[in-house]
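Worked example 2:
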Amino acid sequence: MAPPKRYRLSAELAILSGNANPELAKAICRELRVPLADSFVGRFSEGEIRVKINENVRGKDVFIVQPTCPPTNDNLMELLIMLDAVRRASARRVTAVVPYYGYARQDRKDQPRVPITAKLVANLITTAGADRVLTMDLHAGQIQGFFDIPLDHLYAITVFEQYIRRKRLRPIVVVSPDVGGIKLARAYAKRLRAGLAVVDKRRNTPEATEVMHILGDVKGKTVLLVDDLIATGSSLIEAANALDRAGATAVYACVTHPILSGPARQRIAGSGLKELIVTNTVPLARSKRQDKITVLSVAPLLSEAIRRIHYELSISVLFDGMPS
C-alpha cells in the first residue's frame, strides 16, 4: 500500500552532498525533514580528492546531490569518488542526483575527430556505482539514452510557470533563442496559453552568435525567452537585443542553469533584458547576483522526486508540461 501524502520518510534514506551545491542539498533535506548525512569531501595536500562517509550507509537508499557545474572536472570527480565510496560501503541503492549535467553540449559528432563527451560521462557515472540518475533540463534529450541505468529527467517548467503567472504578463509570446529549443518553447507556450516565436541565428563560434531573422510576431508584446542554460550569454543576449529592436515591449528570460561564465554578467547588465529568471541547480553567490537576476528554488521538485523514488512510486506526475 502506498504511504499517505503526508508520511514520514523511512530511516533507510540517506542524502549526501559534495562541494558543488551544498545549499541545494540542505534545502532538499529541509523539504524532506531529514538530516544531511555526515561526510567529508576535501583534498589531500597534492590536490587529489579525499572522501570519507562518516556514518553507516549499509543497506540504505542513498542519494548523492552533486551537479557537475564549474569547476566541472573537480565536481565530476567528487561525484564519481563519492559514488564509489558509497557503493563500497554496501548501500542498498545509490542514486546520483545531478541537477545540472555537465559536458551535455558534446552530445554528438558534429565535426570530424571530436568526442561524444556526454556519453563518456554517462559511462563514468554508471561504472562508479550509480544505480539510478536524477537530473533536470538536459541540454539534449537523447542523453537519456546514453545511460544503461534508469534515468529520471525533470523539467523546471512548473517552477517557472508559477512565477510567470504571478507577474501577470499580457500579451505574452514565448520565444526560443534557436531552432533546437522549439519543443521546450512550445511546452511553455502551451502552459501559459501564449504565442510562439523563434529566433533564427547563425553560430559563428561556440561563444558567438549572429541573429538572422525572427520568426513570429513580437511587436507590442511581452517576450519570454526560454532556454536550458546560459554560459557566456552571447546567444541569449543577442536574441534579447534583436527582440527589443523588433518592437517587443519587454523581454524576460527563463533559463534553468545559470552557468554565467566569462563576460555573461556584464552582458546581462548591459542588455535589453528586463529580468533573467534562473534556478538554483547551479550555485549563484549572492555577492555576484544582479538586480536583473531572480533565483527560484527547485528543491521542492527534487525532494518530491526523491521521495517518490525512495517509496517506489511513479514520478510521471512530475513530468506535467514536459516538451514532447
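The longest strand covers residues 195-205. The CA atoms of residues 16 and 64 lie 5 Å apart.
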